[in-house]
User: Fold DNA polymerase III subunit delta' from Lentibacillus cibarius.
Amino acid sequence: MKTWSQVAEVQPLASKIITNSINRDRLSHAYLFQGERGTGKDEIALLLAKSIFCPNRSDVEPCQDCHACRRIDSGNHPDVHWIEPDTLSIRKEQIEHLQKEFTYSGLESDRKFYVIKGAETLTVNAANRILKFLEEPATQTTAVMLTENSQAVISTIRSRCQIIDLKPLHLKAFQNQLIEHGINRSTAVLLSALTNNLNEAIAWSEDDWFAQARKRMVQLIEMIRVNPDDVFLFLHQEWMPHFKERAQQERGLDLLMLAFKDILYCHIDKEEDLIIFSKGDEKLENLVMFFSQEKLLDILNKLLDAKRKLKQNVNPTLVMEQLTVQIQG
Assistant:
């Protein structure tokens, strides 16, 4: 989303609130953008920064081509600061560095703009330090906090921000967008179950890694059914070498969850909701015979627990070994 008119098509209420504030020159000193992954938080924050700093703005729309707009796009504008989690959290030292930056006057204007991405990951010390900016805002400072889970952001921060709710994208509309980009319907349905970020979905559809991930996921489930003694060998020789990074490991668990949901849907005659398998698939019918409804519900709970462990930085190989034992048990 490069313009406010494009934002209005996807997030009409958020666009209206922010553009009205720009037009009236009454921007809040702090915003909290809350919404699921892919709802446009980063893009809207970036666009807001451009609308503030662009010298050639037309109404609310930045020109996108001036020196300021290009530097904001590249992350090199000296008065626009982005703070992101360092591994799993935003640390006190990152906020201290931001505070130091704010002791200097604006290098290219009299304004400052900063974004806290993943605001729910602020440590207690970091959150307490950021409160100083929010409690005693400089007149020419705009803060934007981004989060997927506003309830995990401490209440003192929430109370000092104007909260902007970003709505989930309409599933069918998103699938149609993917199809318009040349992605076949079954893949579009799968991608829409994993992300609602258009650029990310298109990139995955073109990446052989994703196709191989889907293949390995089906192989693992089949091996649990047919060759349980070889599962650990498969994990170490095929699964872990393919799912190397944390984000990839989470995608692998997401794919497993969708597949086991398919098996459960087939049990309860909801075959119109299948995502991984297709109706009448022999593999699916065999898996329905192998896994009971009770067992499938237990597996889905174990998969959720495995995802939590990954986020808690538990060793991913250990997580997968425990998970497969639990599925087999």
